[in-house]
Amino acid sequence: YISVTGVQTCALPIFFAGDLLTRSNTTRSGATTIPIGWRGLTIDAGPLAERLTPGMAVDVMANGTFLVEGALVIDVVKDGHSTLIAVPQERVVAVADAASVGLAVLAIAS
What we know:
two-stranded antiparallel ribbon; 1 helix; globular
């Protein structure tokens, strides 16, 4: 029995730069990699998920503020709205925190 203190704030999977993403640890797509210095995490893209494809650039926002401009879509589960995105390492905690409480939203970047 191990005693744990604190509160878990994020139950989203976080991948590390260079991790191999496969059918067994992501969704339906084949293998791809996250750019070096970036991290991968899932986010609920809602209805926008149907318009997203791997390789697209998206912006991540919360409360009217850009958390990441130019995040990379790695994979999309269109039926569940979950989207695996890659973000710069220094922004992953902010994005994961916002996503865990339903505040993070995606916008298609131009």
